[in-house]
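Subject: sequence -> structure tokens, single chain

Hey, anyone have a minute? Need the predicted structure for the following. Not urgent.
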Amino acid sequence: MALACKSAPDPPKGSIDAETMSKIIADIHLAEAKVSRLSFQEFDSTKVAFKYFEQKIFAKYKVDTAQYRKSYDFYAAHPEYMTDIYDNAVKILEKKKETKKLD
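Reply:
Had a minute. Here:
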């Protein structure tokens, strides 16, 4: 993945690296799609189901909610990073679709 322009500051210490962030975001979008297909009657049930998937994703990448939020906030504040992260996340999703590995 091509990293952002030289003018962007380095991510703060303890941040999730851009490559891992792309993988997490791809998995989160898959989780959102799964939850939307579950057809829960109550919005609260949808939130609980998504939270379950989200925690599994964080465990898979050995990150916690605070680390994810801190990293996401940094990248979101620097579009030059976030563009690369989302471009890579889309590539990950496309590759999974091609191989039918949409977990």
